[in-house]
């Protein structure tokens, strides 16, 4: 059924047929009304500057009521341990206070596109990592069409990760969707003193248009090391947010992206400090070639009560082509005293002197450029603590370099 032809009555009937909890049904109803009421965002809103979102045509979108996109195992393919439990998100909303209190609030529906996601949600899951659990291998969450015959379906996927107190875990979240239009939202709560290494890889199929929103709320003394890899073959808008809602929490968000041809990457990375004694760090490294374009917005918000906070932002983009276009928009919003915060941003081309030096040692221009790009990315990729995941990032970068030269 064409998404714009779905009525509110049909949506409510669908929700009731699935025995969804009232909270979810009501959220769908409100999101449906907001989706039809609200216009697409425009560039008068800072978050949407330069995005050309008005060009997005929603009229052809088809809604498949139930999707089948989520696969979860350990990264080596082995079965999940007993300290990991899974259940449908609708059931978790009924049974888990942590979900009913936080679902749709860590990533709230605030505009036409987030409202679309919540109204037409067609695949979701709740993942719980039990208190005090320690994992010696990364958990792997993969999004792709499990049935190849359904690969062209649009995915509206929502994941809720509940990381218990004192958990030590690594999580790789990977998106390889093929539908022409996808929204993928991930909400995570990290419990007291949890230590989470969180890796995300986005490499959806050619000509896809993806909206990927991820938000992590950090508990008391929680530690988060978050690494993102954005390697689109179409258009992607990513919004990643660390929420420091409890004292003593610390988090870093390090992202890399590579776009070629006419691919488009639009990223917003945020650190929201709401309480005292927290620390955040955002770093981004991006490379463009061909006629690709990127927009990176880094945003640090320190609320009035969030004294004794440190938070830093650093963004660097490398353009390998004069036809590539990149924008960087860093911002600080500080309402508290006794804080440390700064931001920096640079956009440039490959250093011609370095390129000449390497070519004088016998390397071709392509080989020299590739080495410089790998060194540029390695400032962040080289710090990934899981070696298998680090290699996945490097493989993606090398693949994109090969594609760019083809």
Structure description:
The chain has eight helices and 18 strands. With 406 residues, it is of the alpha/beta class. The protein has one domain (67-405). A nine-stranded mixed beta sheet has the order 1-4-6-8-10-12-14-16-18, covered by helices on one side. A nine-stranded mixed beta sheet has the order 2-3-5-7-9-11-13-15-17. It is globular and about 70 Å long. It starts with 7 loop residues before the first helix and ends with a helix. 44% of the residues are buried.
Produce a short descriptive summary:
This protein is of the alpha/beta class.
Features of the shown structure:
alpha/beta, single chain, 38% strand, 406 residues
- The total of beta strands comes to 18
The count of helical stretches stands at: 8
| Low-confidence blocks of residues | none
Radius of gyration: 21 Å
Number of domains: 1
User: Strand count, sense and closure of the main sheet?
Assistant: 9 strands, mixed
Kindly report the oligomeric state of this protein.
single chain
What strand line-up does the widest sheet have? 1-4-6-8-10-12-14-16-18
On the 0-100 scale, what is the average pLDDT? 94
Q: Strand share of the residues?
A: 35-45%
Helicity level: 10-25%
